[in-house]
Design goal:
Helices cover 1% and strands 50% of the residues. Strands 8-9-10-12-16-15-14-13 form an eight-stranded mixed sheet. It has a five-stranded antiparallel sheet with strand order 1-30-29-26-27, with no helix packed on it. A five-stranded mixed sheet has the order 2-20-19-18-17, with no helix packed on it.
């Protein structure tokens, strides 16, 4: 059996005109009419409500949309909670809704997962991460006519990453923020031509996949963005794919991975429909075509599907199949690393690792 190694440059790509078809699972209890974010914790689906609603988190039953449990965040007023995210230790509540662009009290509340998931607790306390946008100097109120709004957040490593909801230019700015209590500036890292308003985000630590939900400005036609194969935390610099959803006019707000290639999404109540929980099949976007751009020392062992990669620094190596799915994720360290891909069926695979250079994968053909 022959193994051929080709180096490729993984460039940003906004592809995929196919319309995706989400499935309605259930209407939501009317308590959740203004659901604005979703997160899955140990198989449980949690949500929160946005401005004008209680400062509570809600555990919902994904089969019938009923509220199974509510937990008050006692010291965290709900000015405009817009998204929730979690890592292995904390749940983060984004109180950063800013339709007028004039808020000077932006914050993220941090709640210990152990406290939230303890069924004996009807209320818990939160730490506060206060922040401002480093580039904002004008706080003139401009309702739905500014680029300082935000409704989407993920937690990755030791940071929070915010995806802005830009009313003026319909783009989304990527901001980085320390995930620790205190006073911070959110630093702008990158820009996505979102072609609409981004309202929710989710990160899958199993494979590094990121998805954004949103809708077109004015028409409320939902779309979803997917990102994979990006270097480090440069989420927009890997493979990107945008698809419209076939749900018609719907104010989609929440999104959360809940299995391989599958997300929950939720919409707020509107004059056209009630709040609902949906399911959407969402594979990773396909890896793009190769162009020569060697930047790593890779030595195959011919005939057995194994290869050695010499990494300049430690990082995570991921192997994608032809459909863009992650079929192997493993840590590599500075120096030589033996990688065993012999268990994979014959085919073309893309191997991407930040340790082998920014955004440079290796296509392995067996």
């Amino acid at each position: 059996m022959r193994i051929a190694i080709f180096l490729t440059s993984l460039l940003p790509m906004a592809a995929g005109a196919q319309v995706l078809v989400p499935t309605v699972i259930t209407p939501l209890n009317t308590t959740l009419n203004e659901t604005s974010g979703l997160v899955v914790l140990n198989g449980q689906v949690w949500t929160q409500l946005d401005s004008g609603n209680p400062n509570s988190l809600y555990l919902l039953d994904p089969t019938d949309g009923e509220v199974l449990r509510s937990v008050v965040i006692a010291n965290a007023p709900n000015t405009d909670w817009e998204d929730i995210a979690a890592d292995g230790q904390w749940l983060y509540i984004g109180d950063f809704g800013n339709n007028n662009g004039d808020r000077t009290d932006l914050r993220v509340y941090r709640v210990a997962l152990a406290d939230l998931l303890d069924t004996a607790n009807a209320s818990v306390l939160a730490d506060t991460i206060r922040f401002a946008y480093a580039l904002q100097s004008d706080f003139t109120s401009a309702t739905n006519n500014n680029d300082w709004d935000c409704e989407a957040m993920i937690a990755v490593d030791d940071s929070l990453f915010l995806f802005s909801k830009n009313w003026v230019n319909n783009k989304s700015y990527l901001y980085a923020l320390p995930a620790t209590p205190g006073d911070h500036f959110a630093e702008r890292r990158d820009t996505l031509d979102a072609q609409g308003l981004v309202t929710g985000a989710t990160y899958d630590p199993a494979n590094g996949a990121i998805a954004l939900i949103g809708y077109t400005d004015g028409l409320y036609l939902p779309f979803v963005w997917r990102f994979a194969g990006y270097p480090q935390h440069a989420f927009f610099q890997g493979v990107a794919q945008r698809n419209m959803l076939s749900s018609g006019i719907t104010q989609m707000e929440g999104i959360a991975w809940h299995g391989i290639g599958s997300v929950y999404i939720s919409n707020e109540m509107s004059v056209l429909n009630g709040a609902r929980l949906w399911e959407l099949q969402l594979d990773l976007p396909t890896v793009v075509a190769p162009t020569a751009a060697p930047s790593a020392d890779v030595r195959p062992t011919v005939g057995n599907g194994r290869f050695t990669i010499r990494a300049e620094r430690s990082g995570t190596l991921r192997i994608f199949d032809a459909n863009g799915r992650v079929v192997l994720a493993t840590e590599v360290h500075q120096g030589d690393n033996a990688v065993d891909a012999s268990f994979l069926p014959p085919g073309t695979y893309a191997v991407q690792t930040g340790a082998a250079g920014a955004g440079v994968p290796i296509v392995v053909q067996r």
